[in-house]
Design brief:
Layout (H helix, E strand, L loop, with lengths): L2 H7 E4 L3 H10 L1 E6 L5 H12 L3 E9 L3 E4 L2 E4 L3 E8 L14
Antiparallel strand pairs: 1-2, 2-6, 3-6, 4-5
């Protein structure tokens, strides 16, 4: 796969209460990914950027919310998130050097 493409697949880690719970219980990490990203691309990108072994990838399409402003109806853009399962003993630490 093209290394330049892999650098554009992962957009950001998804940090939330649910993502933290999933990380603790199931040893998965949640990422916001490009809308046209495939599972093999996501796996290759995580392995390239974080130097970890990926066991599996699950993806979910998140629909954009409907918002109203002064009577007009609009819709936010939808996006895609990936649940990345790491092999046993592997972890990704986003807050390196932070006070614990």
């Amino acid at each position: 796969m093209n290394q330049q493409r892999l650098m554009q697949v992962l957009l950001a880690p998804q940090i939330s209460e649910k993502a933290t719970y999933i990380a603790d219980k199931y040893e998965q990490v949640v990422f916001r990914v490009a809308s046209d990203a495939t599972k093999p691309e996501i796996k290759a990108a995580v392995e390239l950027l974080f130097k970890v072994d990926v066991e599996s990838v699950q993806v979910a399409n998140v629909k954009g919310k409907v918002k109203r402003f002064k009577g007009s109806v609009g819709r936010r853009k939808g996006w895609k998130k990936a649940y990345v399962s790491l092999k046993a003993g592997q972890e990704i630490n986003f807050v390196e050097g932070g006070n614990a």
